[in-house]
Design a protein that fits this description.
two-stranded antiparallel ribbon; 23 strands; single chain; Alkaline Phosphatase, subunit A; 26% helix; 461 residues; alpha/beta
């Protein structure tokens, strides 16, 4: 492990004078060095020539399908809610009036209205892995299920340009199971990162804006001090046998001293007009324990993909709309859905105009949907039976609606789409053949990336 001394800090309360250190190596991953991480991921298997990227947008708490992509205007008022449907760019297809911008862009993306396969669990683990985990009844393999990005990191490795393959750019949330770290609801077990091993934990970027962005605890200004870091490394060379540093150690150091990743993280390098186009967003009520509605996360995700990251995960908003916090679902929809509508619309168009939508897949979802019937307080409760999901890019055809729910929006009655089919589609778009690629679990048993021979969603390709 290479340890580089940083700027001298004031003494701590114990009276000791300490320095700030940038550690190119362990990064808190159980002692495994970053060089080990790169070495372990440098032998890709099951890959093909087409290797796109994925941006996964997690909506903590589970969004409502009725007030977004699957309105039910013919249902009773306690089912249909307070809003009306509006036509979209797809003939005969309607969204809720809360999403006017996305309705006009509906030919740029597709919607799955009949997703199945999630459990009634308030945790991001399901969205990031496509499976339930953390409980003995889940029958996880040795080591536990890995996140999608960890699998991509294991199978494909970094692109070779000094950029990590998997970055989590979600802000830190106060409700632990919402964070991308494998914490489970009602379980002390931590599954993160599953049987791919700790070398495939994502690089974590925390912060709600460029002023406080951190990469694994290193602030952006400190990370950007390339000259100081290189000078420190030069001093290290005087006392260390650098000939003993193998290719992977040099690559590890290169990642954290190259300005590519630091520049991708620095949103101030983006034209002000583009930053303004995405907008500032708004906080969400702290009682939800979720994420703010920060459109700049999407801009950051775009910049990371441009820099070469294979998988970026972000979290947007707080969607546990029982009406036991802040207000009714009508109030919450009016407050939060316009920002959701604006941000996703700008994001999709920005990717398209830059030619990135062809190679970048997007999936937008929560851990479950909401009940068809509005409860006595004016909210909707948990509903794992189905939900609506937005998908786009990376070879996914736009302008399609897959599946159909019943007249109340509670059950998939036509073409239920299993979450594992979504994952198979995303793996395909990354260039991974789910029929052949396997990863050994901790017992040495090869594990396929999706269950039961699930295949990519043919209707979207």
């Amino acid at each position: 492990m290479i340890t580089i001394p940083g700027i001298r800090q004031s003494p701590f309360c114990d009276g000791l004078s300490r320095r700030n250190f940038l550690k190119v190596g362990a990064l808190g991953f159980g002692g495994l060095s970053m060089a080990d991480m790169l070495r372990a991921s440098a032998t890709p298997s099951g890959s093909s020539l087409k290797q796109g990227s994925v941006i996964m947008v997690y909506l903590p708490g589970g969004p409502t399908q009725h007030e977004t992509f699957d309105p039910k205007p013919g249902a009773p008022s306690e089912i249909r809610g307070s809003f009306n449907p509006i036509p979209t760019a797809i003939p005969g297809v309607h969204f809720c009036e809360t999403l006017p911008r996305l309705a006009k862009l509906a030919n740029r993306f597709s919607v799955i209205r009949s997703l199945v396969g999630f459990e009634n669990r308030h945790e991001s683990f399901q969205c990031y892995t496509g499976r339930a985990g953390g409980r003995t009844t889940d029958n996880e393999p040795a080591g536990g299920w890995p996140a999608f990005g960890s699998v991509v990191s294991h199978v494909l490795g970094p692109r070779g340009n000094g950029i990590p393959p998997y970055i989590d750019a979600a802000p830190k949330m106060s409700y632990p199971p919402y964070n991308n770290n494998g914490k489970h609801l009602s379980s002390d077990r931590i599954s993160w990162p599953g049987f791919t091993g700790v070398q495939h934990v994502p690089f974590a970027i925390n912060g709600n804006g460029k002023a406080d962005l951190k990469l694994n605890g290193v602030t952006l200004p400190r990370f950007s001090e390339r000259e100081r870091l290189l000078r420190a490394f030069g001093q290290l060379q005087d006392t260390a046998d650098t000939a003993a540093l193998d290719t992977y150690q040099k690559q590890a150091f290169g990642i954290l001293t190259s300005d590519q990743l630091a520049r991708a993280m620095d949103l101030s390098l983006e034209p002000e007009s583009v930053r303004n186009l995405y907008g500032k967003g708004q906080p969400t009520d702290s009682s939800f324990g979720g994420a703010p509605q920060d459109p700049q996360q999407f801009l950051l995700a775009r910049r990371l993909v441009e820099a070469g990251v294979r998988c970026v995960t972000i979290a947007f908003g707080a969607w546990d709309w029982h009406a036991n916090r802040e207000g009714t679902i009508a109030h919450l929809s009016k407050k939060y859905l316009p920002v959701f509508d604006h941000t996703l619309s700008v994001f999709i168009e920005d990717l398209r105009e830059r030619g990135l939508l062809e190679t970048t897949s997007i999936v937008v979802w929560g851990e479950f949907g909401r009940t068809p019937r509005i409860n006595a307080k004016g909210g909707r409760d948990h509903w794992p039976a189905t939900q609506s999901v937005l998908v786009a890019g990376g070879g996914i055809q736009g302008g399609r609606v897959i599946g159909k729910t019943d007249s109340q929006g509670g059950e998939a009655i036509e073409r239920p789409v299993h979450v594992q089919e979504v994952f198979a589609t995303l793996y395909r778009n990354c260039g991974i053949d789910v029929n052949n690629a396997t990863i050994p679990d901790f017992s040495g048993r090869p594990q396929f990336l999706v269950d039961n021979g699930r295949q990519p969603i043919a209707e979207l390709l």
